[in-house]
Amino acid sequence: MIPLDPSPEQMREMGEAALAYAVEFLRARAEAPASRFEEAETVARRYRASPPEQGGEFPPLVELVDAIARNSADNAGPGFLAYIPGGGLFASSLADLLSTTIDRFVNLWGEAPVAAQIEDNVVRWLCDLFGYPPESRGVLTSGGSMANFSAIVSARKAKLPEDFLSGTLYVSEQAHASVAKAAMLAGFPVRNVRRVPVTPELRLDVDAARLMVEEDRAAGLEPFALVASAGTTNTGAVDPIAACADLAAEEDLWLHVDAAYGGFFQLTERGRARFRGIERADSITLDPHKGMFLPYGTGGLVVRDGARLRAAHHAGQAAYLQDLGEDGHLPNFAEYSAELSRDFRGLRVWFPLALHGVSAFREALDEKLDLARVLYEGLCEVPELELPWEPELTVVPFRLREGDDAANARLLERINASKRVFLSSTVVEGRFTIRACILSHRTHEDRVRECIEIVQEAVASLVR
Ligand SMILES: Cc1ncc(COP(=O)(O)O)c(C=O)c1O
Question: Which residue stretches of 220-357 are H helix?
Fold first, then answer.
């Protein structure tokens, strides 16, 4: 039996088994099926159990990980084009192993100043990426949803009185559901989340937003925030951020940009051109577990005026933490977020940045933009398909020209049955729409060209 504090030999033996599995798993991604659900539920049931009273051996736990990996969509593989891929960087896996081993507390800097410094390096880099001033601050969150939540709470605190129920916020019909959820969690009635119509390119219609704000103000409501998307989940549409910033300035609204999907394209010239004006946003959500290819569990929020982020999250000094320093040269991140104890996310981001350099991310993201063009142009050649929206970033939506929702659902099934790619669907303009999102560092041109062939064959098999 393995004691709670294993011997060095036991740790080495288990560690080597885990590392051997990890290396072989990653080596095999190119040939692995893009999804495998056939027995997944049966296998899941087989693993239903209460924990044993007496402990067991380590190898069955590696087998458990393998059962998870084998009976699922392969989110880490090059064929994963569903939802928003990331893929998981090995450097981050190693950072997690080491950071959870030393188990240092990062959220109050006095407990482990070097850890806080590394996390601060990451946050400063994110602020600098968007041209934010020195007084900007940020936090690493578990993901984009929590970042959006903290952004809405900050906007509420900055712009509304304690009694805030007449406050209204404006989001495009295409915004991610986490924005409305954030507003709900922040205490707003659903009706206070105003859905702004979109232009034919599926971008927020700023004139329509302006009218809605004016009408709401005339009706005695208190418009306080506008949320723009730097890449929607559905189609990758980028809202006109500069025009949104103008409207926000005119109407004294907090401008939040949800860049959970698209944010890191700011590293590329094309991304910066599309996000023009983003530096004027009051806050920006980013998801390193998407655009930096990190494993799930790392999002981020940056706020131009850091004091506002703190004002919304700091509830006063707790007596039992009096031994730790005040917010100073390094921030007490806990005072800027909803969390106190949490994992050391900064190391998970810093390892890959230090090991590969920023240029590796810039190049990979540039490649993804090129690949989206390749996919778009390839699918445009299939006469039975319509592609109503050119990719602004790396989402390529398409559907059958003539075919109802059921036919499109069958098409998606056939594409995914190839097991070489795994795509997902959404509903746009009331119609079932298939979408491919290229955002894994493991997806390259060969797989994208293969995807085009798979879609062509699937379409042909449907109309035969
Ligand atoms: C635009 C956008 N915002 C927010 C989110 C939510 O992020 P998370 O899943 O990290 O909570 C997503 C996730 O796909 C997204 O695409």
Answer: 241-251, 269-274, 288-291, 306-313, 345-356
Probe residue for ligand 1, chosen from 81, 83, 173, 233 as the CB with the greatest number of ligand atoms within 8 Å: 233
Q: Which residue has the tokens 């893929």?
A: 87
pLDDT digits (tens, 9 = 90+) for 107-123: 999 999 999 999 999 99
d(CA 444, CA 453): 15
Domains of the chain: residue spans and CATH:
99-355 (3.40.640.10)
Structure tokens at 369: 């933009």
Which of 174, 178, 278 to mutate for ligand 1's pocket (most ligand atoms within 8 Å of CB)? 178
416 SS3 class: helix
Residue nearest to atom 4 of ligand 1 (CA): 144
Bridge pairing between strands 167-172 and 222-229: parallel
In degrees and rounded to multiples of 5, residue 137 shows phi and psi of: -140, 165
CA of 220 to the centre of ligand 1 (A): 32
* Pairing label, strands 299-303, 283-286: antiparallel
Contact residues for 322 (Cβ-Cβ < 8 A; gap 6+): none
Mutate which of 80, 83, 84 for ligand 1 pocket (most atoms within 8 A of beta carbon): 84
- The per-residue pLDDT for range 141-156, each reduced to its tens digit, is 999 999 999 999 999 9
What is the pTM assigned to this prediction? 0.98
Residue type, 12: R
Distance from C-alpha of 130 to C-alpha of 280, rounded to nearest angstrom: 9
Q: Is 174 in the pocket of ligand 1 (CB under 6 A)?
A: no
**What span, in angstroms and rounded, lies between the C-alpha atoms of 284 and 291?**
14
Asked whether 284 and 301 are in contact (CB, 8 A), the reply is yes
